[in-house]
Amino acid sequence: MLDQRLLPARIEYVRYDSAAAVAAGIKTMVVRGAPAIGCAAAYGVALEALRLRDQPRDAFLAGLTHGIAALAASRPTAVNLFWALDRMRARLDTLSLRALPVAEIADALLAEAHAITVEDVQLNRAMGTLGAALLPHNARVLTHCNAGSLATAGHGTALGVIRSAVEAGKRIHVYADETRPFLQGARLTAWELMQDNIPVTLIADNAAGLLMRQGSIDAVIVGADRVAANGDVANKIGTYSVAVLARRHGIPFYVAAPLSTVDINTASGDDIPIEERAAAEVTGYGDTQWAPAGVGVRNPVFDVTPAELVTALITERGVVCAPDAAKIAALVAVRALESRS
Amino acid sequence: MLDQRLLPARIEYVRYDSAAAVAAGIKTMVVRGAPAIGCAAAYGVALEALRLRDQPRDAFLAGLTHGIAALAASRPTAVNLFWALDRMRARLDTLSLRALPVAEIADALLAEAHAITVEDVQLNRAMGTLGAALLPHNARVLTHCNAGSLATAGHGTALGVIRSAVEAGKRIHVYADETRPFLQGARLTAWELMQDNIPVTLIADNAAGLLMRQGSIDAVIVGADRVAANGDVANKIGTYSVAVLARRHGIPFYVAAPLSTVDINTASGDDIPIEERAAAEVTGYGDTQWAPAGVGVRNPVFDVTPAELVTALITERGVVCAPDAAKIAALVAVRALESRS
Asked: Is the Cβ of B194 closer than 8 Å to some Cβ of chain A?
């Protein structure tokens, strides 16, 4: 995995060969971004299967169960993690676990992880094509955190929509919130967009309100870590502030997320667990610490934006304007119908 | 001057002996905070006078004029700077510039700078006593940037109100926004409050909305760099976001500022110049740079909160609820009446 903690200063890859190691990589944010975490978890299961492919069948299956549990315990908020693990478990369930050679089970799990990854790029492309229409030519678009290639298997969710708009010939100028405390905007979004020659201006999170008040922002687009059944959106801490400001200024607020991010089993945003991380992320950055030693800290790293502030949810199955429980239920029901047929 | 750029890691003082050097200290933020900048500018004029006290009268007066101009050009937004320079000029105007020995003019200017500084502490004490009544016992109070002892000659404006409430026996828990990009909250507010044993929890600016939504904030109090005639408030970048969030959650939003911060000659917030500072403040902090080299940046360091979002303006002459042009004009007119009598 590309170690995203070191970007953009250094491009270094970390090798993994077990579910426990991948779980540690997710927990320590070597990889982050809801869809990317899902792909990483799927590969974590596959790597565990490959690691145990020479073990007796019972040890192999027990090890897999243990590895899946370790991955599920890595981070609590992004639902794609659980979605990907459920899908890997479902793939296991279709196999003849008592008859098929262990090595073939492992190969099937690896193929499933590959499929999840390939599909993620396809879904992002679809979201991009469907969502790009929402961004006018010459739009100045604010984004928060990183919902780009680095947060997915490729193309990106929020940045995927921007990329698709640019590919369609529109000129888009992106304003990237730096996104304290982990600085995904400053380090990852700015870097990604510069690689693609998409104009980007970096701002402190605190500057978003002023820019909106000055009329410098035409639209906001972000990704999501979990969308509840009623359309409430959990995303990187600070997303809620941006949504409240956008509403005050009549600026559309878009959320781009595949249906794997929609958690129909979570009724509302109030039911989404919000991860709190270490104080050291807030008292400084990396080895540089600037706050007084011993200061009390709260570091919730996600917040919830209520559905009423979301202008539209951009999914691979179309744009849902003013998302609510009925619209989301309809979308999920049609998907279920189709997957049965 | 205490070098606030090094706090809380190091306590170092810088010595100044000319207006130009003090102007450079203000510009590079050795000292910051609107009232503290006012005091520093007054001392800058006095130091220039002391430096030139052995010069011929014409060189002395020309040098003073030059020094005042350098100080006035140091930073654009905080009006206390211009207020203090106006007051030093007014003191000069009362002196017999053609007759009084140059050394005595210098002594009079030094005395005026001392007076401004002593008065600032008195005004902060008065604001504290008047404003403390607004904070309930056990209040959880969010503040942004640093409006404390370090931003004034002592006691503080926003933190002065909190200190006075604590002195009055109330238990107050402060949540301090870290205040990117210059981190005045993380470095200065957290440090000041810890010195005084006032409980403080540091948060990323992005977390304010979540805490409000969770019901963890009872009031917001901030200082100001300039209050326009209609009650609009220029303050540290990000203040506007906090005010918008507070309004959404029905949380009172208080601004503590002496009348020297009220600029009756600026009609509204739209007329307040907003300083933009170097990109390096946003691309990293100090020697640590984390954004990709060459990224475009905007770094406005103040924003404007419209008067309609201000629950009350706390001044040394009393609390102005729902400030507007008429109330501010009345307050300023009474002060003018009294100073004539």
From this structure: yes
Residue B59 DSSP SS3: helix
Tokens of A27: 């927990």
Looking at chain B, the whole-number percentage of residues with pLDDT higher than 90 is: 96
Which class for B287: exposed (0-12), middle (13-18), buried (19 or more C-beta within 10 A)? Answer: exposed
Cross-chain residue pair A206–B205, CB shorter than 8 Å: yes
ipTM exceeds 0.90, yes or no: yes
Query: Which one of the listed residues B120, B177, B225, B263 is annotated catalytic?
Result: B225
B205 catalytic per annotation: no
Is B213 at the interface with chain A, CB within 8 A?
Answer: yes
Please pick, among A177, A225, A263, A303, the residue that the annotation labels catalytic. Answer: A225
> What's the rounded mean pLDDT across residues B297-307?
98
pTM (2 decimals)? 0.97
Q: Which residues of A touch B294 (CB under 8 A)?
A: 194
For B218-254, write each residue's pLDDT tens digit: 999 999 999 999 999 999 999 999 999 999 999 999 9
Domains of chain A by start residue, with CATH = 19-125 (1.20.120.420), 136-340 (3.40.50.10470)
Question: Contact A142/A220 with Cβ under 8 angstroms?
Answer: yes
Residue ranges, chain A, pLDDT below 50: none
Residue partners of B58: CB distance under 8 A and separation at least 6:
none
